[in-house]
Write a structure and sequence with these properties.
Layout: H1 2-15, E1 23-29, E2 34-38, E3 40-41, E4 46-47, H2 49-59, E5 65-73, E6 79-81, H3 86-95, E7 100-102, E8 108-110, H4 111-114
Parallel strand pairs: 5-7
Antiparallel strand pairs: 1-2, 1-5, 3-4, 5-6, 7-8
The protein binds zinc ion.
Length: 123
């Protein structure tokens, strides 16, 4: 858990750019690999760092996501673990419903529990 938080901090510290990139994510898969991503913001669209990290996981041919964290870098250089927004919760339910999501320095919750009663494809 601490290693994942550290990796998320490192990627957003390295790529932080005010108004463009302020959140970093780290994702660990069953393979043991850690993938990172950053938020991408334009005038009208904000893409959460979790989407870019999970996109990298899938692009690399990996898939079994075990744990995820998102860390916000504030302008003053401090960091804060960010619980996932609604769109990210939907992303988790779609791609990694049993993944453990770090939502604070001391709390981890299964993705399914972050979006109870999620829609399901009907046959
Ligand atoms: Zn989000």
């Amino acid at each position: 858990m601490q290693e994942l938080i550290q990796r998320a901090k490192e990627i957003i510290e390295k790529r932080y750019k005010k108004g463009y990139h302020s959140v970093g994510s780290a994702v660990r898969t069953k393979s043991g690999k850690i993938y990172t991503g950053i938020s991408i913001n334009s005038q009208k669209v904000d893409i959460c760092s979790e989407w870019s990290a999970i996109s990298t996981v899938l692009s690399e041919g990996d898939s079994e996501i075990e744990m995820i964290v998102a860390v916000k870098r504030h302008e003053d250089g401090s960091f804060e673990i960010y619980p996932p927004c609604g769109l990210c919760r939907e992303l988790y339910v779609t791609y990694c419903p049993s993944a453990k999501i770090i939502i604070s320095e001391t709390e981890v919750i299964e993705a399914n529990k972050l979006l109870p009663e999620a829609w399901k494809k009907r046959v």
